[in-house]
Amino acid sequence: MAYKIPISVLVVIHTPDLQILLIERAGRPGFWQSVTGSVERVDEPLEVTAVREVGEETGIDATQYPLTNWRKQNLFEIFSRWSNRFAPGTTHNLEHVFSLEVPQPVPVTLAPNEHTQYVWLPWQEAADKCFSWTNVAAIRELPGRRAQSAG
């Protein structure tokens, strides 16, 4: 079995007016999140991982829109329900945060083995709906980051 590498990306997909795309995990009703995914190789550039995961999970071509690497990392303990995906003894994952701005809510094609439904929500509602503290924090940070870049 090929184990997942404990280095991942979190990509918050949003519109200029801060509607956030959330996707619900297959097999985990109520587990809403932004796009996430692990690097496939230790030397895979994070931007490549982000573009690949956005495409795989939503069908959105991230090369067509502004993708921003926040240069922010979150270290978190891997949920026990997913620990078997990683090499024995691996307890933590290092997540790198990105955002992707699309001009308006765009059509989404979900990977049915990974996600069952999607929704576009105002950022406050999206933050309240996410199960991951890192995802919640990124969504809550997004308005300030956008204001800084516009200022």
Provide structural commentary.
There is one protein chain. The longest helix is centred in the last third of the chain and has 18 residues, at 133-150. The chain is built from three helices and seven strands. Helix 2 runs antiparallel to helix 3 (133-150). The chain has a four-stranded mixed beta sheet with strand order 4-1-6-5, with helices on both faces. Strands 3-2-7 form a three-stranded antiparallel beta sheet. The mean pLDDT is 94. The protein has 151 residues and is an alpha+beta fold. It has helices at residues 46-58, 123-129, 133-150, and strands at residues 7-14, 19-25, 32-33, 35-38, 67-77, 92-101, 115-122.
Summarize the structure.
This protein is an alpha+beta fold. The protein has helices at 46-58, 123-129, 133-150, and strands at 7-14, 19-25, 32-33, 35-38, 67-77, 92-101, 115-122. The chain has one domain (7-146): Nucleoside Triphosphate Pyrophosphohydrolase, CATH 3.90.79.10.
